[in-house]
Give the backbone structure.
Amino acid sequence: MSPKIISQQSAYNDGLKFFFTGSPCARGHIAERYVSNGKCRECDSENNRRRYQRQTNRGKSLFELWPPRPDRVWRGPVCRSLARVRVNGVTLA
Ligand SMILES: [Zn+2]
C-alpha cells in the first residue's frame, strides 16, 4: 500500500503537500516527503515524538525520571576528602 511515485515538482504543481520518490531517506525510511522542505515524513514524526517526550519530561521531577534503585543504599552525601582517603588506601584515626 505504498503511495504512488510522484516527483516533488509535479506534486508542487498539483498543489500537494507531499511527494514520493520510492527511495529511502537518509535514515532508511521509504515514506512520503514534504514538498515544502523535502523532509521525510517518518523522520519528521520521529522528531516530533522526541520533542514531545522532551517536553513531557520537562515537567517531571528528577525523582520520576530516575527513581531510586533498590540495590543502591543511600549513605548520605559523598564527602570528597573521605573518598580521596579511601582511594589512596590511607585510613584516618
Ligand atoms: Zn526518514
